[in-house]
Amino acid sequence: MGLRKRKSAEAIKEARKTQYGAVLRNVPSSPRKMRLVVDMIRGQEAFKALGILKFSNKEASRKVEKLLRSAIANWEQKNERKAEAGELYVKTVFVDAAPMLKRMRPAPQGRGYRIRKRSNHVTIYVDTKVNNND
User: Distance (Å, rounded) from C-alpha 111 to C-alpha 127?
Assistant: First the structure.
């Protein structure tokens, strides 16, 4: 690895030390359905977002709620203290497509219809309001 790449790799490593988040991989629901839930909490205060997810009637909100709790716990673990209400907010959250299961379904006249069972990856980062002003 050249000097330029090594320096940029070290800079990325240092930046990741100050990021607090969690990743949920291979969720068996379509990314489109998951994005509807994720859009509700983007930029919200963390504990308010937990309330939104808890009372949402979408199935994907249960998984995102658990993921957000994990991200908050990761923040608490790295900072060695409990998060206070109003301190944390959802900095970044995004949904990526995961590998698709492809199946065939019998159709009339000897044909086959494709079934694509989609899945997704969800990534969430939390941060403090103090760091936002810097």
Answer: 52
Give the sign of the dihedral formed by CA 76, CA 27, CA 15, CA 134: negative
Whole-angstrom Cα distance, residue 8 to residue 15?
11
Rg from Cα positions in the chain: 19
CB neighbours of 134 closer than 8 A, spacing ≥ 6? none
- pLDDT, one tens digit per residue, over 2-57 is 899 999 999 999 988 888 999 999 999 999 999 999 999 999 999 999 999 999 99
pTM of the predicted model as reported, rounded to 2 decimal places: 0.86
Measured in degrees and rounded to the nearest 5, phi and psi for residue 22 equal -150, 155
Domain residue spans of the chain: 20-133
Distance CA 25, CA 32 (A): 15
**Domain 20-133 falls under CATH 3.90.470.10:** yes
